[in-house]
Design goal:
single chain, alpha+beta, 4-stranded mixed β-sheet, 11 strands
C-alpha cells in the first residue's frame, strides 16, 4: 500500500542513491562518475577528474546546484530521526548549516564520488535508514535528495567540489500534460546549459545557446496539452552564463538561497574569477 507503481523510475532512484556504492566497491572500484545519456559536456576537460578528486582530497563533486523542493512527505522527519539516533555522526556546525535551508541540492545527473565514503559509517548508516524508510518508493524521494542530504550533513565544504571549469548541459523537457506553471509542452522544465568559467567567447556562447533554442523549438511537442504550435518556450537566461529552466538559475544569483552555501566552495581567486558567473 502506498508503493509507487512506476517501478522503473523509483528503482533507478534507489540504485543511484543506495545500491550503487556496495555494488561497485565489490567490483573493486574506488570512484564513480555519472553522466546520463542526455547529459552533454560542451567544452574540453584537460585533466583527469578522478586524479583531481584524489589529489585534492575531495569526496564528492557536482556541476549544477539546484533548489529541490520535491522531497516527499515524511522526508524531513526521517532525516531528523537519523540525526537524533546518530548524534555523533557529524558536527553541529554542519547540521546547523544544513537546516538553514534543507532544499539546497546538487543535480546528480553528473557527479563524481569516492565510493569508500558511502560504504562506511556514518554514511552507510544514514543510507540504510533511508532505505528502510521506503520513501524512495512511497514518496518518490529521489537520489538527488539522498545524495545532497548525506553529503551536506556529513562532509565539510573542503571535501566537496563544485566543478565550474567546463560547460555542461542536462535539461529535462516537459513531455506530459502536467507541465509546470508557464512551461509549454516540450520546453525546458528542469536544468539547462551552464557555461564553464573561462570557456567560449561571448560570441561562441551566443551561437551555442541560439542553436539549442532553435533545436528545442523545432522538436517540441504541443499536441498533448493543446498548446498552440506558435507558443514559444520560456527560456531563463543569466548574463551569458546559463540558459534553461528556473531551478538551476535560482542558485546562480548572490541574492538567492543557494549562494551563502555555495560561496564556501570558492577561494578568493576563484570568487573573483567566478563573480560574473554568479551575478547579483
Amino acid at each position: 500500500k502506498g508503493v509507487d507503481v512506476n517501478k522503473d523510475a523509483t528503482c533507478m532512484m534507489r540504485w543511484f542513491a543506495i545500491l550503487i556504492w556496495p555494488y561497485l566497491h565489490n567490483l573493486g572500484y574506488t570512484h564513480v562518475m555519472r553522466l546520463d545519456d542526455d547529459s552533454y559536456i560542451h567544452s574540453q576537460i584537460k585533466y583527469n577528474l578522478f586524479e583531481y578528486m584524489r589529489d585534492n582530497h575531495k569526496v564528492y563533486g557536482f556541476r549544477q546546484p539546484v533548489i529541490e523542493d520535491a522531497v516527499g512527505v515524511g522526508w524531513d522527519d526521517m532525516v531528523d530521526k537519523v540525526l537524533d539516533v546518530n548524534k555523533d555522526a557529524t558536527t553541529q556546525e554542519l547540521v546547523d548549516e544544513f537546516k538553514k535551508d534543507r532544499r539546497i541540492s546538487f543535480y546528480n545527473n553528473f557527479f563524481i564520488a569516492d565510493i569508500s565514503f558511502f560504504i562506511r559509517p556514518p554514511a552507510s548508516i544514514f543510507l540504510n535508514m533511508i532505505d528502510e524508510s521506503n520513501l524512495i518508493y512511497t514518496q518518490r524521494t529521489g537520489d538527488l535528495v539522498v545524495h545532497s542530504t548525506v553529503v551536506r550533513l556529513l562532509l565539510p565544504p573542503e571535501r566537496i567540489h563544485w566543478f565550474r571549469d567546463f560547460s555542461y548541459q542536462h535539461m529535462t523537457l516537459c513531455t506530459n500534460p502536467k507541465c509546470g506553471h508557464g512551461v509549454v509542452n516540450g520546453c525546458p522544465q528542469n536544468g539547462g546549459l551552464s557555461r564553464g568559467v573561462g570557456t567560449y567567447t561571448d560570441e561562441e556562447w551566443s551561437a551555442i545557446t541560439g542553436h539549442l533554442k532553435v533545436k528545442v523549438e523545432h522538436d517540441k511537442k504541443v499536441v498533448e496539452r493543446g498548446d498552440p504550435p506558435d507558443r514559444k518556450c520560456l527560456w531563463v537566461v543569466r548574463y551569458n552564463t546559463f540558459i534553461g529552466a528556473k531551478d538551476v538559475m535560482k542558485c546562480l544569483k548572490r541574492k538567492e538561497r543557494c549562494y551563502p552555501y555555495l560561496k564556501q566552495f570558492l577561494n578568493s581567486s576563484e570568487a573573483a574569477e567566478t563573480s560574473k558567473f554568479i551575478p547579483s
